[in-house]
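Final report, closing paragraph on structural work. Over the funding period we assembled a curated collection of sequence-structure pairs, and we close with a single example.
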Amino acid sequence: MRARAVIGANFGDCGKGLMVDYLCVTQGAGMVVRFNGGAQAGHTVVTPHGKRHVFSHFGAGTFDGVPTFLSQFFVCNPLLFFKELDHLHALDVIPTVYAHPNCMVTTFADMVINQRREDDRGDKRHGSVGVGMNETINRSQIPELTITMSDLWNGVNILDRLATACGKYAEFRTGKPIQNADTMITAFASTCAIFADQVHPLGIAQCKEPVFEGAQGLLLDQDNKEFFPHLTRSHTGMRNVLVLCEQAGIKDVEIYYVSRTYLTRHGAGPLPGEDEMLRFEDNTNVDHPYQGVIRFAPLDANKLKARIAADCKGAPHKLVLTHCDQMNAPCAADLYATGPTRSDVDAVTKGEIR
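Its predicted structure, as stored:
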């Protein structure tokens, strides 16, 4: 069975959505598998006819009718799911979404706690998006407070867990409980029931011809000590993909590492070689209350190749360079994109782009 993986080679914001869409249209796919992260992702897809969406909870093959599978490594967020679903419906898109039973579920309490903690850090922020992914993982270390997709499908009463999360747990994490939470608890529990009907159970072995869609990038992997604590709470490279492939009996994966022709960082943390003189238009990564403005730096081609090599461990792979219309590419690539749509992606002869 054919499988492909799309991975960000830097700090994210590199064009993974464009590449997933391109592969689904040009090569076909049976499923887009989200193998890490959660609803904090922002993968922009623009069709040749101008239809545009920033995919967060849904796979970037959705415009092409490819279903999404949220693996056990994905953190679900029912509130943001329905917000995004409304936007897709407005575009006349009806997505199909499956999930693994062990997917953790983000609550409104996780989002509140996340934002409180980031606010309290002041000018020492970690760069969180504020949607509660890290807090969901922390809370889920306590069995009595864990909420999974399996719980929602099985109709488990989560009211007591939510009450504790808003009370003692929120006080433990932030120094104060979430006040007047009763109405929010009831509303969120109702939302979860609808969410359970909208998302269907599935296993990775049922995902045929998958495209594995990564979130963020190699430099934000949770084990990257160089940039701690300004990281994401997930494995952004091939680690999760290999686990899923083993579970599905997939032997070979075609890997696509995606990079802009320059470095970006949207959020707190160091950006090597940051250059305030570099300015590029970016309609997706706008000023954000928690991540600030997107920043830019030249791309070090040797370091790019080194971190890709460290992640793929000698496996065959391809390099995709996007935003080639904004800056000359610094190294040879396999695919390049000169614009935002799948029709702007093309193959190049090795060494043609420098």
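The chain is about 30% helix and 20% strand. The chain has two domains: 4-100+202-262+313-347, 106-200. We thank the funder for supporting this effort.
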